[in-house]
């Protein structure tokens, strides 16, 4: 007997599955999984039984086919009742027999009725109890196995006995298991004979029934009584029983002609029974040309016609496998739909070309199935309400998908076996993966071409047949049926080296698996405690273990060790060009499914290419390449599927989160960090998932996930390493334990922490304390990112630019081979351990560090106040010391999106109002003496510390800054000359030149805990005392400032040398005007506050003038005047005259007039009867303009009439606004 393929719980898929009797193996009593598997393997060893050994009530006729024929069996340990609706259309989808296995021989009489109740669709229910209690003198099989050969076995007729109907006790005493095998073979033959008799008994009476018009749904055959059990069951009518089994109804006609469906069911039963010639004759009577045309048109019984084609193809394959007289004398061997078959005499197709008839039959069946396949909306609505009176047939989606896979398996067997030969026949019968393709490495192009040449089948034909199963109806199937379609489809595409198609199917399959596992987790979380007190409970749950954990005892990550969704995700990552050779994590447990799957996928993808590049030792180098940091951080060319890669990794992260698998979340999130720019959302997810993952893998960490070019330059100066770090990402990059690394001397490198702002070039100073004088070679900087292991950054020599590649050369494996070739070294270890470039640094004799002594532990300040702190520097050495001193306030640099104005403000504060300064910046300290440096500290809200650097020593001075005066609501309004004169007199200040004047004011609030006196110095002095919590409006008059148009359009300057990139954005003219007006205003105005204990400055730079304030604060170069009478009558027309002066060089001018009554909108209750509200001049003939218009006031009251000039100057993008003084008109 040929060796069976690897066992699958749902049966090994094969092309000849429709001809196999399906038997379900279940534990008849509580068994450990290993024990159940042990006895199941004994039963599964018999995949077929000769027909002559099967005891039948009606023996087969004498013919060569029946002497050579076999009954084929398929043993399963799981069954999904969702497919029972396919009976009797496809009998092989249901369970035909149930066999319970046990090792105890008592209390089993109730098990067969329980099996019949639990599996009512089966024809036979048996229980076999293996008696392992007695040990014979020649060994005890129940205790151990032995490969030795014992004496010949002589069966005893009274040993294997049936204590109760359906229960048989099998002695299991011999070490070589000959007794068990002999009894199992006899009992299995008896069970199959009884099962087939029951099937024939009911099928024989189908002639008295009439089939319905539609695909039979819910036709669940009840368990027929065995001959030995007829006395236990009330006798029923044969016709009534058959109608219940097959979902048929009794015909009103006494002897109706057998319908196509009845004949098809009989043919299927004959094929399963081993009566192949009878099956051929029955199929041949169905497959007519008239039926073919009707089926292709989607007519009555079209789906059953296609099913008959499938049955004929399987029968033809089995006959070809048998060969000899069985196929030579077979009737109806010619393809039934051969053109002219009924009129002409045709010889059967030569046996070497018989596969063409099978292929033609299956192709026609697929065409009919496809023609009758209902669209999704029909399957959701009409198919569910289908009755016997429905007008037409529809193909169930699962049937069509299964047929596509069957056809693909047929072509795959021919392709892998090199044609129609014995290997192909065995492959079609037993199924599994073809050995020629399942070698662990993908086929080369030459191997694929050779197989296609000798078989006549091309791999794209196989892939096309398999891909046809991916219909829009597939997601409508239940998850178990989707798995039975997607899993073999993924395997076929993998064997054919269709990597991308396999990756796509793997993603869909992973989603289905993830949904099933998630549903299982939720079910377990709410399911009650499972009691194993009875056999009925064990059969209901159908598990092989004797205990099941309580719902509250199910650990998190219960599927971590056997999660197929993670394996499919790893395979999809490799197909999508995501490099998984170098794991993004370190210290992953080698027993975790992720690590096992990653190693297997890498071995499959890289071994062949490494062997071609490195010879026979390529396989040995794979583990070392996987662990090498040089491989992990090597430059990679983009694969080209960036959006698809990101979407895939995000989907896998979501799946791992749904399955409560934190280590998988961290793994795929780390891959996402490697292949895209990190975001705050990714890092937040890692911060939640990594601690949970470390509960199962305590030492797991991320590899370095920062920018590959973070380190830009290293310089050595005066005992310090000046490091330039560039962060190209949109998020801040915190660095921990940053210190210099090198070789040559024993040095101490104190570690520091830093945060590199987004899109900025940041400079750090790293101290190096030598232990002896000499030359130290600086090699890099060691940093540690959050959650990652420490990593050393090096300055690499400039290399050739990375060339973008596409297609097969863009795969990670191909890029790795190219990297190895470009290394140009005979020994690969030189490329993996190549030392980086170093910088020679001269170090002097070691000295004791300078000690910093702070006079206070914390400095208490109000916002805007200043204080001097005297810092003591002590020299404990015997030599004088020249100590460089500096301070750092830790204020962050502006972000990348900062405008030029924000950058200017940051530089102005650092230059004119720094938080801390130190004097002197270099202090000479005598041996064993103390010197002092003064630190000037300015209080600023948000600054909590000042760091002092004295040589290699660092001290932190904490600050406690409380708010003082808050300012807001800047207002600017025009006032009359008389009002301005009165205000200047009240403030005891001389008035400037004659008007116009403006009143500037802002809101000040004392938010401190003490009373403050606020003083404004703006040419006039204004003082107000503000108690704690009180506020006041500070207002003072002033004359407009003199600023030309060119002054308002100047670019924003840079006050210092910048280490960050200024965005290339263009500010509007209005924004520039506001900036320069603010600068000119606060240069003339200074605000201070004073308390009983301290004094300080009030920050006014946060107050910005608006667009409307700009023309009021700037003395107009252009003067706009309105001349009209100050009294007018309502409903009368007045003629104001507007004069505009100072327009030298202007390109365009638009003048408008706005009369306003009280608080109403401009020009409301007024009209321009003879003119317009505005007028435009372009170009200008004179620097002065005069325009007379007409205005009619429709309402009485005090009116204010103003005029505005919109002037466009050269090189300006927006018009500049100039306003006149409003003229009051009393309308009566």
From TrEMBL:
Cite the Trs120/TRAPPC9 TPR region domain residue spans from the record. 388-679
Primary location group = Golgi
The listed locations are: Golgi apparatus
Trs120/TRAPPC9 third Ig-like domain residues: 992-1103
Q: Domain Trs120/TRAPPC9 first Ig-like: where?
A: 721-797
Q: Sorted alphabetically, which keywords does the UniProt record give?
A: Golgi apparatus
Q: Which Pfam families does the record associate with it?
A: Ig_TRAPPC9-Trs120_1st (PF26254), Ig_TRAPPC9-Trs120_2nd (PF26280), Ig_TRAPPC9-Trs120_3rd (PF26282), TPR_TRAPPC9-Trs120 (PF26251), TRAPPC9-Trs120 (PF08626)
Enumerate the InterPro entries for this protein.
Ig_TRAPPC9_Trs120_1st, Ig_TRAPPC9_Trs120_3rd, TPR_TRAPPC9_Trs120, Trs120_TRAPPC9, Trs120_TRAPPC9_N
Q: Where is the Trs120/TRAPPC9 N-terminal domain?
A: 14-322
State a GO cellular component annotated for this protein. trans-Golgi network
Q: Which PANTHER family match?
A: TRAFFICKING PROTEIN PARTICLE COMPLEX SUBUNIT 9 (PTHR21512:SF5)
Q: What is this protein called?
A: GATA Zn-finger-containing transcription factor
């Amino acid at each position: 007997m040929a060796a069976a393929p690897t066992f699958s719980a749902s049966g090994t898929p094969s092309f000849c599955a429709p001809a196999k009797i399906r038997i379900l193996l279940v534990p008849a009593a509580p068994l450990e999984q290993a024990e159940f598997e042990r006895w199941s393997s004994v039963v599964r060893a018999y995949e077929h039984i000769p027909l002559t050994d099967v005891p039948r009530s009606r023996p087969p006729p004498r013919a060569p086919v029946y002497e050579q024929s076999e009954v084929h069996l398929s043993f399963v340990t799981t069954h999904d009742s969702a497919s029972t609706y396919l009976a009797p259309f496809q009998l092989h989808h249901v369970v035909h027999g149930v066999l319970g296995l046990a090792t105890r021989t008592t209390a089993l009489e109730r098990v067969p009725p329980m099996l019949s109740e639990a599996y009512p669709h089966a024809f036979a229910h048996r229980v076999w109890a293996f008696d392992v209690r007695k040990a014979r003198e020649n060994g005890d099989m129940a205790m151990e196995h032995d490969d030795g050969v014992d004496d010949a076995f002589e069966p005893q007729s009274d040993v294997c006995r049936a204590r109760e109907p359906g229960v048989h006790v099998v002695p299991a005493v011999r070490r070589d298991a000959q007794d068990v095998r002999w009894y199992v073979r006899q009992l299995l033959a008896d069970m199959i004979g009884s099962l087939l008799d029951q099937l024939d008994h009911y099928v024989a009476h189908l002639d008295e029934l009439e089939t319905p018009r539609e695909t039979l749904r819910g036709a669940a055959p009840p368990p027929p009584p065995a001959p030995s059990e007829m006395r236990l069951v009330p006798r029923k009518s044969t016709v009534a029983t058959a109608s219940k089994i097959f979902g048929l109804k009794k015909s009103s006609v006494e002897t109706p002609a057998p319908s196509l469906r009845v004949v098809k069911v009989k043919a299927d039963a004959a094929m399963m029974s081993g009566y192949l010639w009878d099956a051929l004759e029955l199929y041949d009577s169905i497959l007519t040309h008239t039926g073919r045309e009707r089926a292709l048109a989607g007519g009555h019984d079209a789906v059953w016609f296609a099913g008959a084609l499938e049955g004929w193809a399987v029968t033809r394959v089995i006959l070809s496998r048998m060969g000899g007289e069985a196929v030579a004398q077979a009737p109806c061997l010619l393809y039934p739909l051969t053109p002219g078959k009924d009129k002409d005499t045709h010889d059967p197709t030569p046996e070497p070309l018989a596969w063409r008839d099978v292929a033609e039959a299956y192709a026609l069946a697929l065409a009919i199935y496809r023609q009758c396949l209902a669209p999704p909306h029909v399957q959701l609505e009409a198919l569910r309400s289908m009755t016997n009176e429905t007008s037409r047939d529809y193909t169930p989606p699962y049937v069509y998908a299964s047929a596509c896979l069957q056809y693909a398996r047929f072509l795959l067997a021919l392709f892998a076996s090199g044609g129609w030969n014995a290997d192909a026949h065995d492959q079609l019968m037993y199924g599994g993966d073809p050995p020629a393709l399942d070698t662990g490495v993908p086929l080369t192009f030459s191997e694929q071409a050779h197989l296609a040449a000798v078989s006549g089948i091309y791999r794209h034909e196989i892939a096309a047949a398999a891909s046809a199963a991916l219909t829009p109806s597939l997601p409508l199937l239940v998850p178990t049926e989707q798995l039975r379609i997607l899993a073999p489809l993924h395997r076929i595409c993998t064997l054919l080296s269709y990597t991308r198609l396999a990756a796509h199917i793997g993603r869909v399959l992973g989603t289905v698996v993830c949904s099933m596992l998630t549903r299982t987790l939720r079910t377990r979380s709410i399911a009650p405690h499972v009691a194993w007190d009875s056999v009925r409970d064990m059969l209901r749950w159908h598990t092989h273990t004797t205990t099941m954990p309580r719902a509250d005892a199910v650990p998190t990550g219960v599927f971590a060790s056997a999660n197929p969704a993670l394996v499919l995700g790893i395979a999809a990552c490799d197909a999508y060009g995501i490099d998984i050779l170098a794991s993004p994590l370190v210290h992953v447990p080698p027993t975790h499914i992720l690590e096992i799957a990653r190693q297997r996928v890498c071995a499959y993808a890289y071994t062949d290419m490494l062997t071609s590049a490195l010879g026979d030792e390529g396989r040995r180098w794979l583990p070392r390449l996987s662990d090498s940091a040089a491989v992990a951080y090597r430059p990679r060319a983009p694969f080209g599927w960036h959006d698809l890669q990101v979407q895939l990794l995000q989907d896998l992260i979501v799946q791992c989160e749904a399955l409560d698998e934190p280590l998988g979340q961290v793994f795929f999130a780390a891959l996402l960090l490697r292949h895209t720019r990190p975001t705050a959302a990714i890092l937040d997810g890692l911060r939640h998932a990594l601690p949970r993952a470390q509960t199962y893998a305590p030492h797991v960490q991320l590899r370095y996930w920062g920018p590959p070019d973070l380190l830009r330059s290293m310089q050595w100066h005066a005992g310090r390493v000046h490091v330039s770090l560039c962060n190209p990402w949109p998020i801040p990059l915190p660095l921990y334990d940053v210190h210099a690394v090198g070789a040559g001397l024993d040095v101490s490198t104190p570690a520091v922490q830093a945060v590199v702002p987004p899109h900025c070039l940041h400079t750090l100073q790293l101290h190096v304390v030598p232990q002896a004088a000499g030359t130290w070679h600086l090699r890099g900087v060691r940093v540690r990112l959050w959650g990652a292991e420490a990593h050393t950054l090096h300055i690499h020599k400039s290399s050739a630019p990375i060339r973008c590649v596409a297609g097969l050369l863009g795969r990670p494996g191909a890029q790795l081979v190219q990297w190895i070739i470009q290394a140009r070294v005979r020994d690969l270890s030189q490329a993996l351990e190549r030392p980086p470039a170093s910088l020679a640094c001269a170090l002097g004799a070691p000295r004791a560090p300078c000690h910093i002594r702070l006079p206070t532990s914390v400095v208490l300040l109000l916002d805007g106040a200043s204080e001097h702190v005297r810092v003591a520097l002590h020299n404990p050495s015997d030599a004088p010391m020249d100590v460089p001193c500096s301070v750092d306030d830790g204020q962050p640099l502006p972000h990348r999106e900062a405008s030029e104005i924000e950058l200017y403000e940051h530089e102005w504060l650092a230059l004119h109002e720094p938080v801390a300064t130190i004097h002197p910046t270099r202090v000479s300290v005598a041996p064993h003496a103390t010197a002092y440096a003064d630190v000037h500290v300015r209080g600023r809200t948000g600054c909590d510390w000042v760091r002092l650097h004295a040589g290699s020593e660092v001290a932190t001075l904490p600050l406690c800054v409380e708010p003082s005066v808050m300012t807001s609501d800047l207002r600017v309004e025009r006032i009359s000359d008389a009002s301005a004169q009165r205000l200047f007199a009240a403030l005891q200040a001389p008035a400037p030149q004659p008007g116009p004047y403006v009143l500037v004011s802002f809101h000040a609030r004392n938010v401190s805990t003490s009373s403050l006196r606020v003083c404004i110095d703006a040419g006039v002095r204004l003082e107000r005392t503000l108690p704690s919590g009180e506020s006041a409006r500070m207002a003072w008059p002033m004359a407009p400032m003199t600023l030309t148009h060119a002054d308002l359009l100047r670019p924003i300057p840079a006050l210092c040398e910048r280490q960050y990139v200024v965005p290339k954005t263009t500010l509007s003219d209005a924004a520039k005007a506001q900036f320069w007006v603010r600068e000119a205003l606060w240069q003339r105005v200074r605000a201070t506050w004073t308390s009983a204990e301290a004094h300080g400055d009030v920050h006014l730079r946060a107050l910005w003038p608006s667009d409307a304030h700009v023309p009021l604060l700037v003395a107009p170069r252009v003067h706009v005047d309105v001349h009209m009478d100050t009294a007018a009558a309502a409903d009368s027309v007045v003629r104001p005259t507007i004069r505009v002066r100072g327009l030298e060089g202007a390109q365009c001018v638009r003048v408008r007039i706005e009369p306003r009554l009280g608080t109403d909108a401009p020009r409301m209750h007024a009209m321009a009867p003879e003119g317009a509200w505005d007028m435009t001049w372009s170009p200008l003939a004179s620097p002065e303009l005069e325009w007379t218009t007409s205005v009619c006031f429709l309402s009485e009251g005090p009116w204010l009439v103003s005029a505005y000039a919109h002037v466009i100057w050269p090189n300006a993008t927006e018009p500049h606004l100039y306003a006149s003084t409003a003229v009051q008109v009393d309308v009566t």
